[in-house]
Amino acid sequence: MIKIGGLLESLLQLKYISRNYDSANKTEFEIKCITFIEVDVTKCNLCGECEKICVTNSMKINNEALEIDKSCILCGLCILVCPRNAIAMKEIHKQGRKDERFV
Amino acid sequence: MIKRYPRFIYIPNRNIVNGNMTIEYEIENGRILSPLPNYDYEKINDSCEFEKRNWVKNIPFVSRLSFVENYTCEELYSSAIEELLKVEIPEISKYLRVMMLELSRIRGFFLYIFNISSALEFEMPREWALSDINRISKIISEINNNEYFSPYIIPGGIKTQFSSTNISVITEYLEYLKKRMKDYDKIIFQNEIFRLRTQNVGVIPRQMIEEYGVTGFIARSANVTFDIRKRIPYEIYKSIHFDSFRYEHSDIYTRVICRRNEISNSIQILDYIFSNIPVESSTLNKDIYQSKARVLGEGTVIKRIEGINGEFILFLESVNDEVPKTIKFRSPMFVIGGELLKKLLENTSLDDLDLVLASLSLVPMEMDI
After folding, report:
1. Residue % of chain B over a pLDDT of 90
2. Are B255 and B203 spatial neighbours (Cβ–Cβ below 8 Å)?
3. In chain B, which residues have their Cβ closer than 8 Å to the Cβ of A99?
């Protein structure tokens, strides 16, 4: 004899799974945090230490301004060698809270 | 009798490695004869040419040497450079270095469980291990500026600032890990099928371990109590007490149980760190990066560290220059992946091939670095 309650429950579960499956397919990849290099123009005196140390040659001094290329791998060597502490690594979080966990 | 000459391809292509590690062997009655491991790959990025760049430029390349033991390589390189420069690092960064090394050890353990359960076709622990790898990788990258392979341990200390939120995240994770290990015990370590499938398979006798110079968890599982963290303590390991375990002989079962027990060591060490960590604002001695202070002293340094899979060694030689004269890393894979693997696979059943490989925790890209 078929138990109606159990049958209904399993059907509901199936519906629940199929709904979840559909929503899982629709989810898109989201970037929640972007890390980048920021140069403080007021502190930088264009000494060229960062340009010399950069392993990917992504830092260049052109027309009396420091330019950072897309090829930067964020190794942070330029921050270490800068004698005037003009370079820093910054983060942008999507929801504006730095302490939020995405685990 | 039919003889075949198959090729077992061990790793897929990766961005940093060109080619695969392969093992060629003959089969006779389902048994492997004359296995020949072949590491015919080459590195695309000239990451091994450390003698062409100055020591500061080498930092990002060191952490890309291995995708498993990246923090071990960083620790070796940093401590060797600090010895040549004769500089002291802040006390807090010693604690943070050990913390990161232990976290990467936990991650290596889950990678090991993933490999073992894949070889045994245990679906559930494999999925669990994968989710746990993701979980701990996220925590590690969160500590390290949202980057996993970006350098964290650098000469002079630690690259990123450590905040109190990081401590709460890790302590929360440790509580989770303690509960999770009990679940793993039930599903895999106390599993009868697992025990029957792995006991007395891939046995490495103690005599072979001493002859070949095998270190790490493989040596410890064969009752050779060799741990660099206890024998030649570095950073803060001297002040930390953690348990040591004894085993009878090294088969696959004992190796897995050995690694499982060593997770409790890592939890002990991390608990010690968070109860004793000093309060200091600066985690980095930045003076050594100024152009005048970068010249390395004359001499040679040999550093030894207990990595995830065994003893990691660095030989560094310098002659009063920013560019080091010689740098050579020697990973535990140099011993395990060469002659030991050949010896172990000889006359092994073909069914056990991937299980034996997984139990050795092979990292082929570390073979020659």
Report:
1. 41
2. no
3. 165
Between CA B270 and CA B100 the distance in angstroms is: 9
CA–CA separation, B81 and B77 (whole Å): 6
Q: Residue-wise pLDDT tens for chain A (103 aa)?
A: 445 655 555 555 444 444 444 444 444 445 566 778 888 888 888 888 889 888 888 888 887 788 888 888 888 889 889 988 898 888 776 654 444 444 3
Backbone angles phi, psi at A43, to 5 degrees: -90, -30
B174-181: Cβ within 8 A, 24+ apart? B174/B267, B174/B270, B174/B271, B177/B106, B177/B263, B177/B267, B178/B267, B180/B132, B181/B260, B181/B263, B181/B264
If one counts every other C-beta atom within 10 angstroms of the C-beta of residue B192, the result is 7
CB–CB of B146/A34 below 8 Å? no
Q: Tell me which amino acid residue A49 is.
A: E
Q: How far B89 CA lies from chain A's nearest CA (Å)?
A: 15
Does B230 contact A at CB distance below 8 Å? no
Domain with residues A24-97, CATH architecture: 2-Layer Sandwich (3.30)
Beta bridge partners of A62: A65
Instruction: Give the mutation candidate from A81, A82, A91, A103 for the B interface (greatest B CB count, under 10 A).
Output: A103
**Residues of chain A with C-beta less than 8 angstroms from the C-beta of B290:** 81, 83
In this prediction, the answer to ipTM > 0.85 reads no
> Cβ separation of A53 and B151 shorter than 8 Å?
no
A75 and B60 within 8 Å at the Cβ level: the answer is yes
CA distance B183 to B31: 35
The pTM assigned to this predicted structure is 0.85
Rg (CA), chain A: 26
